[in-house]
Write a structure and sequence with these properties.
Rossmann fold
Length: about 190
């Protein structure tokens, strides 16, 4: 099977992780940029940079307090950009390494598609209605509706995705759309 690197992107709560999990179940290689960033966030120098940026109250026992950080950074666009930039280079480097070792298709779950330059073969955007997004995130993360709306306000649509996959229905419907996208991309 041909080597392709395909970005799976979309707003928070759209179903990126669900789509990636389905692809993994079907035997495709996937990588989650949020997981790569979480690994990078454990590096002492990154923890120190976050503490320098946000202050003492956002690091506990040498670990980032992600919930407190989320509340703070998504309420301020400039702060969010500065915070995210602490992780982008490390995620980019690790992703390049993983992609270079992959001989078949690689699906990359990435929330911030424009975080760094990468030569994507395709971009699949998972889309859902705003009410569905809010409902999913509030129930999944135990946060307020206002918190989710703050996050959504800081996210943007992809300019020209290769494929749009709608996720307003059941998991079975999402699976059917993914199968169709795989067939159209000649990846079945």
């Amino acid at each position: 099977m041909k080597r392709k690197v395909i970005a799976i992107t979309g707003f928070i709560g759209s179903g990126k992780s669900t789509a990636s999990a389905i692809l993994r179940q079907w035997g495709y290689k996937t990588v989650d940029c949020d997981q790569l960033a979480a690994e990078i966030s454990q590096q002492p120098q990154v923890v120190q940079q976050v503490q320098n940026l946000l202050g003492e109250g956002y690091v506990t026992d040498g670990k980032l307090d992600r919930r407190k950080i989320r509340d703070k950074v998504f309420a301020d666009a400039q702060l969010l950009q500065r915070y995210q930039s602490l992780f982008f280079d490390g995620v980019h480097s690790r992703l390049q390494q993983i992609a270079s070792q992959c001989d078949g298709p690689l699906f990359v779950e990435i929330a911030v598609l424009g975080a760094f330059d990468f030569c994507w073969d395709e971009v699949w955007q998972i889309q859902s209605d705003r009410d569905a997004l809010v409902f999913r995130v509030v129930n999944r993360d135990g946060v307020t509706e206002n918190n989710v709306l703050d996050v959504l306000a800081r996210q943007s649509d992809v300019a020209a995705p290769t494929r749009i996959i709608l996720n307003n229905g059941t998991e079975a419907e999402l699976r059917a759309q993914l199968r169709r996208a795989l067939a159209e991309a000649d990846l079945l």
